[in-house]
C-alpha cells in the first residue's frame, strides 16, 4: 500500500509540474535542494544515534565505500555516454 501512495504522490507531482510548466517555478528547485539537505542532516543524526550502526561501522564502511564508488563511476559513465549520444543526434 505504501508503494502505491509513493507512486501516486510522484504522479500527482508530475501532473502539477506539467500544468504549471508555463510559470516560473524556480523557487521549487531551491525548496527541493533545501529539503534534501535537511533530510540528509536528519539521516546523519539518526545514524549517529544508532549504537548498532556505529558499532558495525568498520564492516558497513567498506561495503558502503564500494557501493558509493560503483554508483559514482556508473553514473559518470552513463552520463558521459548519454552526452555523446545527444551531441551526435544534434549534428
TrEMBL record:
Transmembrane regions: 5-20, 27-45, 65-86
This protein's UniProt keywords: Membrane, Transmembrane, Transmembrane helix
Entry protein name: LysO family transporter
A Pfam family hit: Lys_export
Species of the source: Falsiporphyromonas endometrii
